[in-house]
Specification:
Layout: H1 3-15, H2 36-40, H3 54-59, E1 68-74, H4 81-89, H5 93-107, E2 116-121, H6 126-132, H7 136-148, E3 156-161, H8 170-176, E4 178-183, E5 195-203, H9 207-216, E6 223-232
Parallel strand pairs: 1-6, 2-5, 5-6
Antiparallel strand pairs: 3-4
Bound molecules: zinc ion (ZN).
Amino acid sequence: MSKLTEWGRALADALMPRTCPVCGNPLHADERYICRACLVALPRTHLEDVEFNAMEQLFAGKVPIERATGYFYYQKTSPYAQILFDIKYRNRPQMGQWLTSRAAQEMRASGFFDGIGAIVPVPLHPSKRAERGYNQSDYLARGLAEALGVPVVQALKSTRAHGSQTRRGATDRWLNVQHTYTLNDKKTLTLENTHTLLVDDVVTTGATLEACARALLTIPGTTVSLFTLATARLD
Ligand SMILES: [Zn+2]
């Protein structure tokens, strides 16, 4: 960091203190997004070091994927859940980009990313993207792409099947929203014969990733691995 940048950040911090989303303490000038102590204590999964790990087992028999890992464990009640919330709903997707770039560097030695030729983010439905202003998965994909030196390819699009939902109650309507994922035809050629890394923020049931992987696997010669910033404990 240059002296001027350092000075600028210190000034900005004095005017509007940046805080760590996990512990709530103010960040030091040389800390970015998350404080050092909370980063050290990040509940890493290390699934990339485990053969046929719990995340890979989740998709076994459903969709043929190569490998799968998540960077840290997600639990609703954990203070680390705030990271996902901030990335998704509080306009802080850059924190996600920064974290996935760290993840790529940390996991490099495991060989998890060996042979990956492209990164594909799970898309958001256009209306949701307009509401939020961004797709958090785009940022997560970007962080990985920068660290790995491979391109991000917007190969998928999300469409919502509406049906006759208008007469249902709000909860029903929410439960009834069906997302379908289809290929963005202009981009599929780039992914032929490519080991593609599909990226999302969190995996719980795996339904979204499964649907997206299914669509990608219709591209000739494509193989698919999965990466999420966080994962629920699946075992
Ligand atoms: Zn902290």
